[in-house]
Amino acid sequence: MEDPSHLSLNNASFSLCPSAATLYFLPSIYTLLFLTALPGNVLSLWVFLRCIPSISPTHIYLTHLSISNLLMAVTVPFLAAYFAWGSHWTVGDIPCQIALHGITPVLHINIYISLLILTWVALSRFAVLIRNTHASRPSSCITLLPHGFFSRLTRVSFANIVCGMVWAVAVGGIVPVTIYYSVNEATESAEDAEEGGCESVCYSPVVELGGSVSSNLNIFTITVFFVLYLLVLLSYVIVLKHVRRSRRNANITRSQSMLARVSRNIVIIQVVLSLCLLPYHIYKPIFITLAHDQPAPLHSSCLAVDTCHPLNSFIEIKNCLFLLAALRSSTDPVMYFLLDRTFRKHALTLLRSNKTDLNGRQMVWSTTGSANQRTENAGEANVTFSGEALSCERSQQLHCNK
């Protein structure tokens, strides 16, 4: 005989109960992200495309990363609106369709383009370092890489090819699955719920949990993330060993600054991946397992039912960790300052020149305003003097007539 409580769960329809974290915290932070990510990435693109005279492969990688971050920054206001008002939209409403068909693919494309580009920057700098700074003996990593690989790393054309492949892999792998998720898993499940007498809202278990296809893709992308994350970590460990060997070799003391700079850059990339992306990718398999263990009827939602979904708190944790991953688009311009000296130099020069121009305009306005004020005061004095003279003349005429 089955457990009656289990039967009641299977026959119930649940809805999400957004807390203050979903209704106020997430929209506020996403709005702040928009206000910082948009100007930061516009400034980065301006520096990379207009201010730096000679473009290096690293600048190509960071330019494409800025373009991806800028696309994400444009969609962030819609994401803030989704969390603030998604529980009042139905799945058929236009704002919900924009969130499902537009925002979802852009967010995931941005995350994995950033992951691929940052990993490639770390590995390429690691490869150039190992190639150009031999310590007491050449590194064994050189024999593992193809012949001519190091010469290609210094070519801008090769960097453009790599970025094109990154965009093709990210867009070609994510867009079809997100379209399937938004059309079949979310929309059709919502239509089935409406046929059963339920009105499926946009912020609902149907949308937040997804289906088997999107879950399988998530498992694949999580595996890719950890493979790339471990590659960056392995490259840092090898660089540390290379630095220790080089310090015992008096013949390459001139390369010490290069060794320190490359190791610092890899550490910066590792910290960004660890703080922004690692928590989300650790939690996501746990969340998928919990969602997979839930009975199928728990994926429906009705506006008339006040019972909260059992995974309501887990869904909100997932969304907060995804916010942490999205915040990377706002902090990447700061990372550019730390990674690239040329970018730092031109960005500071641009900011100082803008500040100087602003101060100069304020001074001109102040000088012009003072001159105009003096003119107005003089005019007022002339008018006053003329009025007094006219009144004096009239009084004299009246006195003579008397």
UniProtKB/TrEMBL annotation:
GO terms for cellular component: membrane. Residues 40-336 form the G-protein coupled receptors family 1 profile domain. The chain crosses the membrane at residues 29-49, 61-85, 109-130, 158-181, 219-241, 262-283. It comes from the Eukaryota. SUPFAM superfamilies: Family A G protein-coupled receptor-like (SSF81321). One of its GO terms (molecular function) is G protein-coupled receptor activity. It is found in: Membrane. Keywords: Membrane, Transmembrane, Transmembrane helix. The keyword Transmembrane applies. This is G protein-coupled receptor 82.
